[in-house]
User: Which sequence fits this backbone?
């Protein structure tokens, strides 16, 4: 049997009895990162006085999963195997989905255990969801796709959940403020950990709060649904790139929205 085991996102006490039971019977662990997995097993053994003793840890993540599954023995899945991503539910902005799909296509018995999930924790904490919601995971890292992702986020008709890195959280809220400074937002970092921080207010007030905070840690953001009368009145860089205008004019327009000099934008346009 192949078991997908959600791991604590911070507090070790969030591990379920069912997960501990399965971990003790499996001898092969497939891991997003074997180092993280070994540390977790050591901590679980120590905290709960257990003897989780896998015979082998094998790395299986988004960079090697295709090659890994193409080269395994046909009897590989006849043993009890545990799959663990670094934190939270496998397959939710974490590796695991490809392996589940492989199991379905190849009639491999598998079980998904219930457990910690940062997105649902943040959503419930925000009190912004009455029924439907949208999970967007991590937005693109770079423009122009990131700009499009932010604009789509702001147009969603339901509360939307986004994961964000500490290096980009301020930029994300800043972009939201440009579009709709009064949009209600809930942010939480280091969920379930000792220094968990959470705050809900308008995008503008959230941005001001972030200026005084230590931004280190993993963030989850819940953005309220757009109001029916909300009209997006912003233009992104990609919109300007697509205009049929002389490069010098495009460069001047770009400088209005990205704070770069017309000369710098012009050089970038020449290379695009």
Assistant:
């Amino acid at each position: 049997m192949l078991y997908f085991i959600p791991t604590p996102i911070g507090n070790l006490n969030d591990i379920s009895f069912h997960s501990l039971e399965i971990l003790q019977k499996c001898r092969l662990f497939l891991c997003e990162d074997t180092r993280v997995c070994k540390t977790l097993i050591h901590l679980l053994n120590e905290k709960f006085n257990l003897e989780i003793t896998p015979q082998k840890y094998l790395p299986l993540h988004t960079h090697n999963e295709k090659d890994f599954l193409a080269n395994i023995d046909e009897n590989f899945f006849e043993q009890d195997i545990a799959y663990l991503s670094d934190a939270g539910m496998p397959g939710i902005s974490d590796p695991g989905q490809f392996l589940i799909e492989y199991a379905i296509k190849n009639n491999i018995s598998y079980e998904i255990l219930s457990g910690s999930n940062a997105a649902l924790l943040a959503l419930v904490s925000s009190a912004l969801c009455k029924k439907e919601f949208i999970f967007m995971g991590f937005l693109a890292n770079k423009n122009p796709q990131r700009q499009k992702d932010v604009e789509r986020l702001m147009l969603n008709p339901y509360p939307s959940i986004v994961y964000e890195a500490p290096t980009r959280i301020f930029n994300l809220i800043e972009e939201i403020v440009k579009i709709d400074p009064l949009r209600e937002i809930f942010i939480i970092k280091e969920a379930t950990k000792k220094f968990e921080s959470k705050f809900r207010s308008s995008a503008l007030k959230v941005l001001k709060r972030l200026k005084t905070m230590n931004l280190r840690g993993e963030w989850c953001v819940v953005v309220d649904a757009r109001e029916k009368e909300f009209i997006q009145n912003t233009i992104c860089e990609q919109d300007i790139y697509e205009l049929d205008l002389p490069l010098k004019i495009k460069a001047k327009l770009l400088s209005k929205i990205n704070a770069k000099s017309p000369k710098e934008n012009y050089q970038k346009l020449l290379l695009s």
Q: What stands out?
A: The chain has three domains: 2-112, 118-223, 237-271. The first helix runs from residue 17 to 25. The chain is about 40% helix and 15% strand. The first strand starts at residue 2 and ends at 4.
